[in-house]
Amino acid sequence: MRGWALARPSQQTKEKNLAARALFEQALKIDPNNTDALAGGAYTYVSEYIGLGRNPETNYDAKILGPADEAIAIAPDTLWAYYVKSVYLYYSHRADKANDDADAGLAINPNFAPLWAVRGIANVFGGHFEQAKSDILQSQRLSPRDPLGGLRTSYLGAAELGLGRFDAAIVDYHKAIDLGGEGLGYISLSYVGLAAASALAGKMAATKVALAEARRLMPILTVKWLEDSPSLSFPAMIDGLRKAGLPEE
Fold first, then answer.
1. pLDDT of residue 18
2. Domains within the chain, CATH numbers bracketed
3. How many C-beta atoms surround the C-beta of residue 55 within 10 A?
4. Nearest-5° angle of CA 182, CA 194, CA 162?
5. What letter would DSSP give residue 127?
6. Would you say residue 72 has pLDDT above 60?
7. Which residues are CB-contacts of 184 (< 8 A; sequence separation ≥ 6)?
8. Helices (DSSP H) in 60-112: which residue ranges?
9. CB of 134 within 8 A of CB of 155?
10. Residue 8 per-residue DSSP state
């Protein structure tokens, strides 16, 4: 439990993530079949993979999918294991498989809010924006105070952006920024989306401010980088950022 508290804070850092991993490893020394610890240890590698600095020598499929599958084999109702797999799969360009794992977990417990959130985000990655919005709203109804509320709200904005509802997207991105969540880049992504939505809504003064903050937080941001990013490479996002004046390379 202490490991999970450190693994999913609203403000993640490399130090918190490593401390969480140490706790999960300690739990596994006590009980190698502790399924929540297996899933938790895998999740620390997910956080490393998506925003805390990847290690080129790490086999992330082995560090993440291996323990998560082991946990499910021991106890098929280990919902955090399905969550861990889903998050990693959509960030590694496998959104359809991420959806499959989220569905498998929700079939066991349809009230597990984190799985609705990850299914919604996977649907954003896959371009299924109406379904994404429905899933994320369900996660918010079930768990309105989740520590990763900023992330969920940011992807709700992305769903609205993909649906062409630019003013609604702007509202969601502002909410996401207010909720916080830097460390894994959630605020950065919110400013990126806010710049795109503002540009497509014709609000160029707000666009300029949002784009400047996005580029300050994420200096590598270019159109080419976006096109290679599974979390942001959908047409409305790219079109909006081109209109905002984001450089191609």
1. 93
2. 1-140 (1.25.40.10), 148-249 (1.25.40)
3. 12
4. 110
5. T
6. yes
7. 12, 47, 50, 51, 52, 151
8. 60, 66-74, 79-91, 95-108
9. no
10. S
- What is the sign, positive or negative, of the torsion defined by CA atoms of 240, 242, 246, 249? positive
The number of helix segments (H) and strand segments (E) in the chain equals 15, 0
pLDDT at residue 180 above 80? no
CA 124/CA 195 separation, integer angstroms: 18
Q: What are phi and psi of 183, to 5 degrees?
A: 120, -50
Kindly state the DSSP code that residue 181 receives in the 8-state scheme.
-
Instruction: Choose among 138, 69, 144: nearest CA to 101.
Output: 69
User: Would you place residue 188 in the very low, low, confident or very high pLDDT band (cuts 50, 70, 90)?
Assistant: confident
Summarised one tens digit per residue, pLDDT across range 79-91 is 999 999 999 998 8
Report d(CA 230, CA 122) in Å as an integer: 10
Find, among 94, 76, 9, 89, the residue nearest to 42 by Cα: 89
Contact 248, 224 (CB under 8 A): yes
